[in-house]
Amino acid sequence: MQDYTVDHIHLNSIAPFETAQWFADSFGAEVINPWTDDNGIAHVTVNLKGSNIFVKGPTNNPAAGSGASSTYGIEHLAFHTDDIERSVADLKAKGVKFELDVSPTLLPNIRHAFLRGPDNVLIELLERRQA
Fold this sequence. Notes:
Blueprint: E1 8-12, H1 16-27, E2 30-36, E3 42-48, E4 51-56, E5 76-80, H2 84-93, E6 98-104, E7 110-116, E8 122-128
Parallel strand pairs: 1-4, 5-8
Antiparallel strand pairs: 2-3, 3-4, 6-7, 7-8
């Protein structure tokens, strides 16, 4: 079977440039290539250590067959961290609010926490420990 890896996460946002900056301020991501297309739709790429989040602004009149959507957000983003307590403390110091503090998952040696980002996007912080 062919090997697959995650290439990017596509996020529809009400305020794409502000959303991109939030990821930069909160997680140290790099905001790259902000632009607005000929239809007035804003686009920006957020790079988090080689993983891309493509953020696109709202469209009122999507072109037929364009795949454009007026629905915002995704189910959740998951970011790996080696030290979940330190990550949570750092984010709380930046004013980020958590919906679930550090807790175990159903899988052994994995702990996580959940927070909300712009556009009500659910974000999971995940730590995998060696058995």
